[in-house]
């Protein structure tokens, strides 16, 4: 693997985590479309199986194309390692189960992605994992007051969907660490290009790489990245310190994940227990497409942020728009200044000063924007979140997070910005 300094983002997005010399000098990671790998001789097979030699055996556990994607995102995000999975929801689920399995509590805000809210409200409690929800995650006194003996993590989205509220990662990491628990960040919206939570103390990042990391709307996938700084041996997380029956030393002694993998205990456990046993795998072809997407992440996001900013300015001045949700437009916001000097991303929302029928008319009249439930695509997308992407959010929580039936969410792509603004204008004109 090519070793690069931390800050060479543009070189890393093209080269990190993959050495062509190990792959017949193919400059792009080849698609290893195979379920399993020949084991060589029995000695070699034994070494790979016990983990003393790096190698591949079965593509549910690891695959060279997927590994290149994992290595690349780990490098871009400033982590020690990553595990790619079949979707962003698998990344959220595995990360939180790995930290809180067996029972415990997680603190999280109510302004999360709809499926995360649904999972936290209706599924995790059945696994003994209870979520203490807080309306404003930057209300530090309330967050601190929710920490109990069995609290296992704080989970936040760095930039919330669709309100674009920003979580104060550095302060939340400090609060978490004082309590001996990790801060887990869903950093899907900004991607590692616009924001690296690890630089501000976060411990685990999760991504839906369905979105802007890939950027082409052609693959559902997710990835978990480990900062490698958290002490899993502090007594709160027995799953990392008890002997693990699949692991042993060279002379056959049982060991724990902490003993065997040290700072990589968390991410190794995600792979060996959750990916290997629960099985939500990213396919080699999907990893190849996602890697292609990453190659242009800088240029895509630069232009998308610039397009989104121009659209936000237009919407701010548009008489039929009552409220704009795009934290990035407020350069004086201290959280924007501190965390997002290059922009918060390409997703923004606005509330129409009109009826639901007029909102429908806008959605039905756009020609350049595509009406579909996704974000982070090179194409500009439009959706009505309350009816489509955020149906799971209970009605009682919607209003405070910018969610009512007159709110429209945009994910801004790479088209000519004048065409995008013109498209919104004509749709608004026909609606009113
Ligand atoms: C889309 C999304 C997810 C879920 O990702 P999938 O790839 O659709 O499973 C999780 N978190 C956020 C912030 C998202 O936008």
TrEMBL record:
InterPro entries: Cys/Met-Metab_PyrdxlP-dep_enz, OAc-hSer/O-AcSer_sulfhydrylase, PyrdxlP-dep_Trfase, PyrdxlP-dep_Trfase_major, PyrdxlP-dep_Trfase_small. CDD domains: CGS_like. Its cofactor is pyridoxal 5'-phosphate. SUPFAM superfamilies: PLP-dependent transferases. Keywords: Pyridoxal phosphate, Transferase. It comes from the Bacteria. Belongs to the trans-sulfuration enzymes family. This is Cysteine synthase. It comes from Lentilactobacillus rapi DSM 19907 = JCM 15042.
